[in-house]
Amino acid sequence: MSLPNLDTLRDALPGLRLLSDANDLAHYGRDWTRRWTPAPFAIALPASVDEVVGIVRWAREARVALVPSGGRTGLSGGAVAANGELVVSLERMNRVIGFDPVDRLLHVQAGITLQAAQDAARDHGLQYPVDFAARGSCTIGGNINTNAGGIRVLRYGNTREWIAGLTVVTGAGEVLRLNNGLVKNSSGYDLRQLFIGSEGTLGIVVEAMLSLTEPPPPTQVMLLAMPDFDAVLAAFAALRAGLRLEAFEFFTARALAHVVAHGGQRPFAEDYAFYAVVEYAHEGEADETAALALFEQGMTEGWALDGVIAGSEAQAAQLWRLREGITESLASHTPYKNDVSLRISALPAFLHEAEALLAAEYPHFEVVWFGHIGDGNLHINVLKPADLAAADFVRDCERVTRLLADLLAKHGGSISAEHGIGLVKKPYLQGTRSAEEIALMRGIRQVLDPDGLMNPGKLID
Amino acid sequence: MSLPNLDTLRDALPGLRLLSDANDLAHYGRDWTRRWTPAPFAIALPASVDEVVGIVRWAREARVALVPSGGRTGLSGGAVAANGELVVSLERMNRVIGFDPVDRLLHVQAGITLQAAQDAARDHGLQYPVDFAARGSCTIGGNINTNAGGIRVLRYGNTREWIAGLTVVTGAGEVLRLNNGLVKNSSGYDLRQLFIGSEGTLGIVVEAMLSLTEPPPPTQVMLLAMPDFDAVLAAFAALRAGLRLEAFEFFTARALAHVVAHGGQRPFAEDYAFYAVVEYAHEGEADETAALALFEQGMTEGWALDGVIAGSEAQAAQLWRLREGITESLASHTPYKNDVSLRISALPAFLHEAEALLAAEYPHFEVVWFGHIGDGNLHINVLKPADLAAADFVRDCERVTRLLADLLAKHGGSISAEHGIGLVKKPYLQGTRSAEEIALMRGIRQVLDPDGLMNPGKLID
């Protein structure tokens, strides 16, 4: 590629906001991985679909690679720009375009934050139910590009379920308006589905029609303490059968210790090995009775060691903070993050083998487990010892991740449940997707992005 | 293409069951459209994934086109073999492979009927909730290839929502085992989604993992009589807000007359213009009170003219028969079927324009409306007058369908909600999908089916 000339872009799109000072390049060139040195060529901040089209057309002409950019809260390097790319930030395209109460559709620009979309839904008496801790910074466009999951998947599914329409600008600079909010549309390949989870490699998601649903029922939040992984699984099975669960999030003693060190409130006088924040529908006496009976059953059967039910909204928020504060409380330890998923039935065997593997391979590293057991999704965070160089730490983690990927392949799991592949997981994709699948992905990418300009190097080569 | 030699296929796959007598060619070469003269070259009935792979490899070598074939209950010509193709019938691959109670997954071969899959789910105390009248003959593979909808979409969504894993043999003869039943899997393009709704043009679906859910709640069935389309929409809005709807299916006086002529039980002494079969959760006194109050409200507001609530399961079945018997009762009239969908918010304007259009363009034809108003899905059946030649009738219907397609495009609708495009709707696809989308579909098809052997001529050219 020849050296790009920003003036030609300025000439083509006189109104386009462009940034190129060093601070901006650093800010927009990285995501939450912090592993790559940001080195974009410039930052474009389009304000309209037409400007995005203009950018892609210019990029084809100038042969400049593009990195679509949302809230850059990603954990897999999917939004990193470290090779002279033009970052296309959607942050100015953050409006609600429209709402229809009959269709229950919220039409948004892709740069809107998840939180703003949730708030807009709530203002209309409805709910956009995808939810996770980064809600205030992550964007709907980014959520779509990773098919984001989060803490309510158990009840509401992943982002994919809630995208009734999608507007994208392909790598060829064409605008596709996909599905238009229809409930039923059997008119050929559903290209919308292809873009969901495509990590910016096929085009730029510029707008979405979000399906909304009824607000959640009144809920209650319980914190459970448990002795081991088998108990976590038993607790989940019992509570799922007896309550209408909205969320079931587990974490280990180590995760709790970090959150408490960062200001979280210690929930019990004693320490336990495992905890779960459980949120369940609570519409009356009967729900409370059922929850208490299940807890008693857990104490009797041994899968519950202690428990507390929130007595107020403030206490519920405090209990949730123990789970939602984990990522932030680990950040200073530069964790290496695994984000694996398995069928729930495969979890018991996998967990035992994975625990043994990690104990053997990481004798000196602290390993923190948490995640969404009801979706088969485990987050395994390995913390960098303060005295170890970052490069050495990552090298060792990559060695072990390869072993973990083999274990996942053996148990039919995935190397990425919800973070995406990006740069971080690319070396391990073969354990999850077959060589034939990867070759087909490459072929499909070529169809949508004939010049290879869309987020090159991410997901697959 | 050179003339294929069946002996080479026999040699390659000695155990493969093959049929080639005239009756079989006629039987397996057509679907419910009955418009094309079946003329397949032969019928293959593989019993395993390996045999399907062998067939595709042979077809590539011999340059023979393949038509994947399920229950052939399709209404768009998607399973028609009229050009010397080899039909690949999945009817021998109709087994339940496995069930996992923890994952709530039913693993089936694609040739299993919808009914058999539903029954297997029920045997395990769970529900496979996709449902429609052809359940006894249509297959899961066919359902997947059209993303089948049916009568419970309102509550449970389309087939797409329930496919947790998919095994396909691509047009290149490669076996893809996609997603393996995982709830969360953000590891690149979700190829599974691409095959759902692909009408056999990318490969052959050979196995599926079906997600199961809780059995439905106890329900009650109500039949409503209404004066006009606006009343149908008002009734739907009121009942959706006040009841937990499992289904809301409307039909017109003409539809009822045909079903009654075929042995259906006339529900009311008087005739009304519109009817709806409504099924709703009925778990106690409160649900009954709510339903009756809504009916009273409808009588007061004018959107309900009469109504009956089933007093027994037998009566509920009788009411359902008024809706489910429509397709069969019209069959002798060789109906031309439209299967359109719109956003619900677009229905009022579309319905008035479409009614006027059809009244003006079909002054001498009987037009029967029914469908799934809550999904924005209308079935418009035009009946052939007995004295009109079939070819002339179809020609006239195609002329009007083009006008209808323009109207759909104006209102953002789709020419096919759930039947698929096949041969019947192919001329009108451009109204629903843009030229860019169709070109991309063509490119993707080329990637999955490089030799153009998979159901050629269907969906797109």
From TrEMBL, chains A, B:
What are the required cofactors?
FAD
Q: Name one GO biological process term.
A: respiratory electron transport chain
Keywords of the record: FAD, Flavoprotein, Oxidoreductase
Q: Does the keyword Zinc-finger apply?
A: no
Q: What Pfam families does the annotation carry?
A: FAD-oxidase_C, FAD_binding_4
Tell me where in this chain the FAD-binding PCMH-type domain is found. Answer: 36-215
Named from the GO MF annotations, one term is: FAD binding
Recorded hits in PANTHER family, A to Z, give: D-2-HYDROXYGLUTARATE DEHYDROGENASE, MITOCHONDRIAL
**What's this protein's family per the entry?**
Belongs to the FAD-binding oxidoreductase/transferase type 4 family.
- Record-given protein name: FAD-binding oxidoreductase
Origin species, per record, is Solilutibacter oculi
